[in-house]
Amino acid sequence: MRMNVWHVSKNLLRRVKKNVLDLSINSKIMLYYLILLIISVMLSSILYQQVLSNTISGKVSDIAFQMLQSISANFNSTIDIAGEYSKIINANEEIQDSLRNATDSFNFYYQLKASNAISRLMGGSTLITSVYIFDNFGNRYHAHKEAARVLSVDRLENAPWYREVKDKRGGFILRLNAGGVLSPAVPLYPGFRENYISLIREVNDLNSQKTMGVIIINISEHNFERILKSAVSNYNTEIAILDPQNNVAVRTGDKLDFNVGDFAVQSDGKERNLTVWKSNDSEYMATYMRIPENGWKIVSIIPIRELSKESSEFNMVAIVVITGNSLLLFIGSIIISRFITVPIKKLLKSMKGIEKGEFKLVDIKTGNDEIGKLRDGYNAMIVEIQNLISKIMEEQKMKRKTELDVLQAQIKPHFLYNTFDAISSLALAGKNKDVYAIMKALGTYYRTSLSKGREVITVGEEVDVVVNYLKIQKYRYEEMFEVSYDIDEEAKSYKILKLVLQPFVENALYHGIRPKNASGNISVSAKCREDCILLQITDDGVGMDEGDVKKLTSGKAERENPGFGVWGTIERLRIFYGVEDVVSIESQKGVGTTVSIRIPLQGEHQDAK
């Protein structure tokens, strides 16, 4: 599996490298500059963000701890106020008298007297939510601004904090929700619970200093929220106050999914702590501080972006500088690439003309630099190619003329001799009309085939050569073959390289019909097609197998048996028309052969009406 991944990666890297190498020089320069630009911008951005992040983090942490110090002072101040109220309530004569006269029997008079006194004292404070006093016999005296609460334990001595309060000897302790010993008498709804912070201390007789009960002063979380919100309104910060057991007592908002309890647990044993936390692509700093006076804890969560806004002007300047430098680099890469690529594009355009057969000198305005030397070398090459092409064209013309002359010279002397023998035999037999006909056919044959040295004749003239050739052969082989013609009148006026039908007709006669020792048929046709003139010579002779056809079209048959005179004709057609498959041969043993010659209608040699 690992090897497959390695091979896939290697092949992918190879393809990417090839694609890059295939790019134009202009694109390569732009790509290299773009890569350098991206690397430069990335490094600059990373460095800038690192410096900015360190700066902002330091600023956020300073602000956060200053804020926690302020909240800690406010918290302690609020608790101190509650502590003073507890002393005032403790010192009230009506309350002292009610507690001194308490018994294990309920006394409505003292109950009402103490509760009214508590209510009057609490009415002057917006801070305190409720006050509960329990005497040594379990009687309750209270006043409240919320739903009434009852003792949830059978005896106050069973409260989990009772021993600690006794040990304080008049000092107070703080507990969340009175340490769980008070429950709503009538809940507002099932599961109702409102957090409050309770100050708990003993109530002593001012005369004897004996303990007469316990006072619980409750401060609602809403009162603390007002204190906290006034401290954090500038930075959209969330604040939480936790008790020493890391239970959340007060929290201003809970939109951020940050577990302050877990963070407080992790920070146990530390006076201060901080951490950076990310949520929903936003970054926050959480700070922790322990209040040394009472062991309670404060956690703040500040969105770093809030302070980042203060650095927006600095950010904008940095972005403008980086963007400006990047733009200048990019424009510079374009200018440099154009200096190099514009001359090369002109040279490339000229080179593409070579594919179309256009050999033109290129004119690039440049100095004697590398591109100038490339231009001079290219122009010198074009001149040499033009000279070479001219020379080759002359040589080809001479070669084709020589080949045609040789072919015409080789219009089989024995054919001429055999024709004269036939004429002599006809003359001795007194067949003067036949002698006249064969002599006229012979003269027309040679006159048309020679065609005053012309290389190109009409299809009609080419067909006349075949007609006269076969007319002469008919006198020699009267019973051996029959011939038929199917010539489009429109096709007759198109021009064609001369002497291309006669060799194939001769091959059909001598190597197709004659070896079968029976009479055969030869047909010659010329048809107009959309893109060519189609010439076909068909015979029903002995035919050939696939190997013989390949020998014939490759010239091997010509070398093995000079009697096959078609190879030179095929080559002449290929050279003249520049088409490899200008001639196709279909043959089957014992069935016959069809030779198809497609003369293109488009190009240098095919206009020709």
How would you characterize this protein structure?
With 609 residues, the chain is α+β, with helices and mostly antiparallel strands. Among the domains are: 60-308, Beta-Lactamase, CATH 3.30.450; 432-600, 2-Layer Sandwich (Heat Shock Protein 90), CATH 3.30.565. Helix content is 53%, strand content 19%. It has 18 helices and 19 strands. The strands form 5 sheets. Strands 2-1-7-6-4 form a 5-stranded antiparallel beta sheet. Strands 9-8-12-11-10 form a 5-stranded antiparallel beta sheet, sandwiched between helices. A hairpin with a 2-residue loop joins strand 10 and strand 11 (282-290). Helix 2 crosses helix 6, helix 11 (413-428) runs antiparallel to helix 12 and helix 12 runs antiparallel to helix 13 (459-476). The protein starts with a helix and ends in a 9-residue tail after the last strand. Mean pLDDT is 79; it is low at 603-609.
Task: Write the topology of this structure.
Blueprint: H1 2-21, H2 25-91, H3 93-100, H4 108-123, E1 130-135, E2 140-144, E3 149-151, H5 162-168, E4 173-176, E5 182-184, E6 196-204, E7 211-220, H6 221-232, E8 238-242, E9 248-251, H7 260-266, E10 272-279, E11 282-290, E12 297-303, H8 304-308, H9 312-355, H10 370-409, H11 413-428, H12 432-450, E13 456-458, H13 459-476, E14 481-487, H14 489-492, E15 495-497, H15 502-513, E16 520-528, E17 532-539, H16 546-554, H17 556-560, H18 567-577, E18 583-588, E19 592-600
Parallel strand pairs: 14-16
Antiparallel strand pairs: 1-2, 1-7, 3-5, 4-6, 6-7, 8-9, 8-12, 10-11, 11-12, 13-15, 16-17, 17-19, 18-19
Helix pairs in contact: 2-6, 2-9, 3-4, 11-12, 12-13
